[in-house]
Amino acid sequence: MLHLAGHAAFADLEHVGRRSGRIRHTPVRAFRVGDTVVVGLNFGPRSDWFKNVTKAGSSRMRLGKEYLDLGAPLIVPAEIGTQGIPRLFRFGLRYVARTKDCVVLPITMSRPAHKSGPCPLLSYRHRHDSASDTASRRDRRRR
User: Fold this and answer.
1) Which of 99, 90, 106 has the alpha carbon at shortest distance from 53?
2) Fewest C-beta in 10 Å: which of 4, 42, 88, 131?
């Protein structure tokens, strides 16, 4: 599914695993509405990608021909979240997939995407901090 990122509202959501500290890529259907991105929360707030993005407070996404840096997520009812997206997708989210909630992610920065490939990795500092958090958790478990 990640090969479809950038086409037909498929997006590559890049986030940091809350337990592992590893970079994760999740294919999602996303829609840009003004200065925000809307993603249907098809499996509810228990989705791993949602928990990871919530804990980190940020994520990145390849949507269309852009890389987007995204801020902290906000859950809204599907009736509100689907306003501004194409009618066919709004119908599909609300009545076919029966999505009750959507996640609204504010866009903090936008830049053009390269020809192909996944989103560039998150900054070294962020990865390094996550790795040290994982190491300290491992040390606590050993005690």
Assistant:
1) 106
2) 88
